[in-house]
Amino acid sequence: MIKEKMKKTHVPFRLNILFLFVFLLFSVLILRLGVIQIVQGEDFERISEQTENVTAKSSAPRGKMYDRYGRVLVDNEPTFTLTYIRNQNTKQQERLEVARQLSHYIEMDTDKITERDLKDFWIITRPDKAKAKLTEEEWTNLTSKKAYQLQIDRIKEEDLKEITDNKDELKVAAIKREMDTGYALSSQSIKKGLTRKEIAKISENLGDLPGVDIAPDAERVYPYDETMETMFGNLGQIPKESLKSYTIKGYEQNDLVGISYLEKQYEDLLRGQKALKKYVTDKSGKPIGEPENIPGKRGNDLVLTVDIDLQQELEKILEEELRKARSRGNPYADRAYAIGMDPDTGEILAFGGTKYSSKENDYIEYSYGTLSEAYEMGSVVKGASVLTGYQTGVIGHGTTLYDTPIEIPKTKAKASYSNLGYVNDLTALERSSNVYMFRIAMKIAGYNYTPNTAGIPWNRDAYNQVRYHFNQFGLGTRTGIDMPIETTGINGGTQQLGNLMDLMIGQFDTYTPLQMAQYISTIANGGQRIQPHFLKEVHEASQVNGLSNIIVDQFETNVLNHIQMSEGDLNRVQNGFWRVTNGSNGTATKYFKGTDFTHAGKTGTAEVDKGFNLTFVGYAPYEDPEIALAVVVPNLSSDRNESVNKDIARKLFKAYFDLKDEPKSAAPTAKEEKKEAS
């Protein structure tokens, strides 16, 4: 009984302790709520009204481009840019006042101003005149949007002359135009390349220029001047039709992007990581406190496959030889192309074109044409023609055919440059027999040739068969080069038997110089059609001059297809090409005598409306090819005693082997460029 009583008195005591603890806990909680509501209430009310973070982005330098030996080809020159960031609630008149102040400190190009820009500026700066453009009734009945458009429509040329005739006001309009282009809390470039004098003036007055800043920037420079400049590409504003896709990737409307060639092809690798300023704003859009700064990062550096020394030699040789050809009485020969390619990897070693500009009365760099212009290439395609004959079974190794003019009703006699008599497959390549190729075409078409006999049936599917085999070498199809554009040439379709015969000697369908380089590379390497490419490696941006050792990616050799022809057939054609540059009757033997490297190739002549296209494809060394060449010189007046195609090829081969083991010179610096220019 006593123990039971003790238990009963002990339980309420524990409960009292618990109640006391709970009371104290609630007291602390109530006190804390009171402090938050009474003492810190205004602070938390302000925080609760804040919007989400707003981020402003500033441009970052693009990655550089280097040649295969680490010499910089495309660089960034440090410069300073005038930038402007407006708040979400910045008024038009406030921006106008800033523009007016800036007009006293900088020079400004006014060429970008459009008529619409001028009309908008006229309305802002002349509110009373702008209001008078509409009647009271129109102001009452029209929506603000329609009223504004009606004001725009009623502004006359004489109104705009008030601005255009005043250089100072026109400058203000140009500055404000750039200020209005950007989004709120987004860094907008007003002027790139500020002078020291402009920087000093702006810096002195930054306190009176809300939103204005001077930011370090970079401009593209080319240490080797115009060498290969076209292929590097240009930067520009995002095209309107592509704006949505770029926006999804995080770009802003006014960003500069690669718009052509390598700059465009590798935009994702070259673009820098922008510097960020993270703002916290209140409901009105006004920033609260200082922004959080996150530094940007330069884009990745690209190592290209090109040897800049060989590239310079190529461009020099093309210009020299084209000049000589024109001086020999070839006024329509206004361009020449050449490509050097590693046949085993597809790496472009040198790649260029030169063009005579009558407007400038000078020769200009014209690499663009190597992948965008197509020509009838002539007899250089005969390697593919003979291999097609093997593959279709209409000829074999050593097959002998009679070379004499082919006479078909209603068609001009089709012949070689002379009657060669009986020739086999190797001799046909060595001496460039047209008739041998014509007879292969007739056999593929099932045409039982009898001179001057009409009505003989033939199979038009022969066109498809020939083109199928030609395509395996890259003729008439995309090469796959790492460029945004390339043409495939013109397919002449299915026409007469005579056109099929012309197709076999390269005088019907057209091909690009690049396709010819891929074609000869496929023969040189034993039957693999390899994707040609400019990109070799991608390196992480270095914090100092030169390439970093961190390789982000490498371009792996990409075999597009293996041609469906035997090794024996390929060896046979390689032997035929060796005879072209080495045989006693080779069409190029006398041009390649005395070289200290072995070689093989094929010459070509295509008769066209403006005269003749002279071409050459070849590779060296013959036993283990390191370089494959394609040379194209269109529109010569005569092919007699004209050697421009062979001269270019020989000099390019020699340049490659002469440069191969030479020490590589460093790229010129910006200071050296300026010194040379002065």
From TrEMBL:
One cellular component (GO) term of this entry: plasma membrane
GO biological process terms on file: cell wall organization; peptidoglycan biosynthetic process; regulation of cell shape
Top-level taxon: Bacteria
Keywords: Cell membrane, Cell shape, Cell wall biogenesis/degradation, Membrane, Peptidoglycan synthesis, Transmembrane, Transmembrane helix
Molecular function GO labels: penicillin binding; peptidoglycan L,D-transpeptidase activity; serine-type D-Ala-D-Ala carboxypeptidase activity
Keyword Transmembrane helix: yes
Domain Penicillin-binding protein transpeptidase: 338-653
Gene3D superfamilies xref list: DD-peptidase/beta-lactamase superfamily (3.40.710.10), Penicillin-binding protein 2a (Domain 2) (3.90.1310.10), Penicillin-binding protein, N-terminal non-catalytic domain, head sub-domain (1.10.10.1230)
Keyword Membrane: yes
Pfam family, one: PBP_dimer
Protein topology in the membrane: Single-pass membrane protein
Protein name according to UniProt: Uncharacterized protein
Record domain Penicillin-binding protein dimerisation: where: 58-290
Cellular localization per UniProt: Cell membrane; Membrane
Species per Swiss-Prot/TrEMBL record: Guptibacillus hwajinpoensis
Chief localisation class: membrane
Family: Belongs to the transpeptidase family.
